[in-house]
Design a protein that fits this description.
12 helices; 44% helix; Rossmann fold; single chain; 4-stranded parallel beta sheet; 11% strand; alpha/beta
Amino acid sequence: MSEKATSIEVPVMSDVFAKGKKPEYLFWVGCAGAFDNRYKKVARAFAGLLNLLQADYAVLGTEETCNGDPARRAGNEMLFQMQALQVMETLNMYEVKKIICICPHCFNIFKNEYPVLGGKYEVIHYTQYIAEQLKGGRLQPDKSKLQGKKVTFHDPCYLGRGNGEYDAPRYIIDALGMERVEMPRSKSFSLCCGAGGAQMFKEAEKGDKEVFMERTEEALGMKADIIASSCPFCMTMLTDGLKYKEEEKTVNKDIAELLADACM
């Protein structure tokens, strides 16, 4: 993605709403997209794609708070419900109907767990949204930028096994003209990166090998130039794995970054 593309304007819901407009989509940035320096680049890349598509969207900005997924995964149900009700109050105030998430954990909790509390929205993972734009011809990636690159895709648990979405990420990779190779454990048999279930926020338990190292080694065995991912937890674990292996030839890139590189 060019330097120009990293400097983008992102509409904020409160500003847009004050003008009497109701954006079609809320882009839910998530904690990682807002605070993690590495995943900020992914949030920026996806926002750039939304702008390129002239999508009718906005973000909550400083009004966005954690949706409670880590709290529930860690077993703190009371904190989860407190956070969820606070988020729902904000979403309902802005009459949000559609939410696009770049994090599968956010995607999963909005889609499957908020409805029990009364929060019913149309929830879309960004790979699903992008795949539809590509199918409709609204995005025209320059295949020459990534053609010849070998890539293997790591399925996020909360997108794949959790919600049955395996095709959208692969459709995007194939649309970029890259050579895609599947790891032995992929799709419904994919190995977790090791960060799910709030494991991201605790020290490792005793064992012979860390899960993220097992997965990183499997990915490196594919001799790919790029390990593609579409989840901030997965990106953190795979990037750490590459650092531990002192791997310099293979890089971990999010699918949004790959597409932004080819489109902007």
